[in-house]
Amino acid sequence: MDATELKYLKILSKQYPNIAAASTEIINLQAILNLPKGTEHFMTDVHGEYEQFNHVLKNGSGSVRRKIDEEFGNTLSNKDKKSLATLIYYPEEKLDIIMQQEDNIEDWYKITLYRLVQITKHVASKYTRSKVRKALPKDFAYIIEELINEKAEVHDKEAYYNEIVHTIIRIGRAPEFIIAMSNLIQRLVVDHLHIVGDVYDRGPGPHIIMDTLRHYHSVDVQWGNHDIVWMGAASGSLACIANVVRMSARYGNLDTLEEGYGINLIPLATFAMEQYKDTDCSIFSIKYNTDYNTKDLSLDMKMHKAIAILQFKLEGQMIKRHPEYNMDDRLLLDKIDYERKTVTVYGKEYAMRDTDFPTVDPADPYALTREEEEVMNRLRHAFTHCEKLQKDVRFLFAKGGLYKVHNSNLLYHGCMPLDENGDFLKVKLFGREYQGKELYDMLDNYARKGYYGTRESGEKQKGEDILWYIWTGPNSPVFGKDKMTTFERYFIEDKETHVEVKNAYYRLYDDEKIVNKILTAFGLDSDKSHIVNGHVPVERKKGESPIKCNGKLLVIDGGFSKAYQSKTGIAGYTLVANSHGMRLVSHEPFESKENAILKESDIFSDSIEVERAPERLRVADTDIGEELRETVKQLEKLLEAYREGVLVEKSF
Predict the structure, then answer these.
(1) Concatenated DSSP letters for 293-349?
(2) What's phi and psi for 235, nearest 5 deg?
(3) What is the DSSP letter of 550?
(4) Which pLDDT tens digit goes with each residue over 553-607?
(5) Coil, helix or strand at residue 400
(6) What is the rounded CA–CA span in Å between residue 209 and residue 303?
(7) Cα(257)–Cα(175) distance, integer angstroms
(8) Is 502 helix (H, G, I), strand (E, B) or coil?
(9) How far apart are CA 240 and CA 486, in angstroms?
(10) Taking Cα atoms as reference points, which of 405, 649, 613, 391 lies closest to residue 520?
(11) Beta strands across the sheet bearing 409-412
(12) Distance between CA 182 and CA 98 in Å, rounded?
């Protein structure tokens, strides 16, 4: 035993001070290794659609209903199963309705409590008592533990068991107990949640989704392009801030900024009213939903145009500051001919729909006016000092990254940048070439510097600029296109200028050699692993399948966002991986939370078995299992050190 190993064992001995303690932990860990693997739930591209997100999260992509079916089989009617499932999803709201409708509420409480106890026993059976105990709600922890661990059919305990239920009802605690049990079932049905990018974008409630995620028991997030631009804005990147505000204005979601995050937009509104009061803003229409207040339409269009022009200026400054980004084709403000009302793109002249830009100096088009500088400085202050936004973004940095390797799955939002031959694309940044996993790691590292770095070192500015590059750069893994044609889509009618060419990855990801090469680059066994991908909606209505490369690659963006549902034909894919294998679940559009509660209308979901495990997967087959085996190995060495007298036992 060398000195380093002995030093480690001495540290370990503080936690396990004697043979008995070390032996008990070895037995415990070996037993855990043989428990069934926990259920993983994968979701992506939720784009602020918080009601559908929350519902799918609560029902575990149908996992709760499957547990009800497994437990009760034909002993409950379909109607009773639907009612029980709805109660588990929305216990507070459903209880309010039931308490008004039921004639004999005590009987209903009794029946419901027994059913909830049965379901809880069923979903808790794959965990250790210790893990279940940690998940129990504090107010009812002891009672629930007694109920789910006692066997009512054992005669000596039957009266004890029944009296617990009776007393809960008699002292008026049944509603609170039902709520606690329902939330516990949701908690135990899914062991871990993966969000494969894009919490943010068009939907009205990304801030509500972030609240849910921050309080979720076990979660990771792979950053999507829309997450990245919000992270850049929170870091203080002016170009990212302009993008976030412009998109919020375009989709009638300024309420998310103002009410959801408390971002003060009055300086921008005042600026827009003054500078754009006599300006044609007709092409800056608002794509609003039914909740939008149209009295704000005229002002929002002015704000939309004002922030769009600011975005093009700030991005132009960024591109000039970083010639290595190879984005000179995005410098278009200086290509405008104001007399002819045209712009030259890739050497071809196109008519412009609008050239009324009161703040643009044709001689120096990327320079901000004094008033624009003041607006952007005040917006930067609002974003960087917004407590809730900073909390949400710190959560994304703490729980997320550009990719994750987990239980033989590689998760990322966009793509692995490839050239036309299928080789990893070489991307030159800061004087060095990066490709493959190294490119991902470098961008992830600089994204963190953009948020956590200091301006004095110069690394923060580099990081802020990289955050913008990840959002829109031609070789960015999460963007995955040659350009973002925002300028052309606003100002040029000719749709040939709107084309954004996807990276070769999207033409090659059905090639098994390519997918195997990507998996191998991230240290995975290509025979046993999968890539789980989001970002590009799968158009099922056109016959496209989310299952690529014989099941090795799964694209689970199916249109969670309402904006994409007409294109995809469904309302999103999710993935469930449990001890039996992997199931891909496709969802129909979610009507509303109210309908789900009143009509007990769950989302209609159709599932496909992607992969069935030849034998039931155990904890031993997971990443946690590998860690536990390593811990057992070290504990066995500690045991040997005690027995050989190398270390002396303590605390008998």
Answers:
(1) -GGGHHHHHHHHHHHHHHHHHHHHHHHHH-GGG--GGG--GGGEETTTTEEEETTEE
(2) -75, -20
(3) G
(4) 999 886 677 766 666 665 778 999 999 999 998 887 777 788 888 888 776 667 8
(5) strand
(6) 26
(7) 36
(8) strand
(9) 14
(10) 405
(11) 403-406, 409-412, 530-533, 553-555, 547-548
(12) 15
235 touches 467 (CB < 8 A): yes
Instruction: Using alpha carbons, select from 567, 599, 601, 603 the residue that is nearest to residue 587.
Output: 603
If we measure between CA atoms, which residue out of 75, 171, 168 comes closest to residue 118?
75
Dihedral, 206, 208, 209, 210 alpha carbons, nearest 10: 90
DSSP assignment letter at 236: T
> In terms of C-beta density within 10 A (0-12 exposed, 13-18 middle, 19 or more buried), how is residue 156 classed?
exposed
Here the tokens at position 395 are 């959560």
Distance in angstroms (rounded) separating the CA atoms of residues 608 and 547: 10
The dihedral through the CA atoms of 551, 552, 555, 556 has a sign that is positive
Q: Which two tokens stand for residue 553?
A: 């690659």
Per-residue burial over 42-56, b if 16 or more Cβ lie within 10 Å, else e, is bbbbbbbbbbbbbbb
At position 64, the amino acid (one-letter code) is: V
Q: Report yes or no: 245 and 379 within 8 Å, Cβ to Cβ.
A: yes
Q: CA-CA distance, 215 to 57, in Å (whole number)?
A: 13
Distance in angstroms (rounded) separating the CA atoms of residues 437 and 147: 49
Q: How far apart are CA 283 and CA 271, in angstroms?
A: 19
Phi and psi angles of residue 191, each rounded to the nearest 5 degrees, phi first: -85, -35
Q: Which two tokens stand for residue 325?
A: 């980004």
- Tell me the C-alpha distance between 62 and 59, whole Å: 5
Decide: helix, strand or coil at residue 40. Answer: strand
**How far apart, in whole angstroms, are the C-alpha atoms of residue 638 and residue 621?**
25
The mean pLDDT of 21-45, rounded to a whole number, is 96
Composition of the chain by helix, strand, coil, percent to 5: 55, 10, 35
Please tell me the distance from the alpha carbon of residue 238 to that of residue 248, in angstroms, as a whole number: 15
Rounded to 5 degrees, what are φ and ψ at 502? -70, 155
**Of the candidates 29, 16, 18, which has an alpha carbon nearest to the alpha carbon of residue 130?**
29
Residue 144 tokens read as 């629930």
In 3D space, the residue among 574, 572, 582 whose CA is nearest the CA of residue 530 turns out to be 582
What local confidence, expressed as pLDDT, does residue 248 receive?
95
Place of tokens 């109660």: 87
The Cα-based distances of 380 to 243, 388, 465 in angstroms read 12, 15, 15
Q: By the 8 A CB rule, do 472 and 479 touch?
A: yes
Tokens of 77: 């009617």
pLDDT band at 213 (very low <50, low <70, confident <90, very high): very high
pLDDT band of 537, cuts 50, 70, 90 = confident
- Give the C-alpha separation, 81 to 68, whole Å: 7
Alpha-carbon torsion (607, 609, 613, 619), positive or negative: negative
CB within 8 A of 91, min separation 6: which ones? 178, 179, 182, 183
Q: How confident is the model at residue 538 (pLDDT cuts 50, 70, 90)?
A: confident
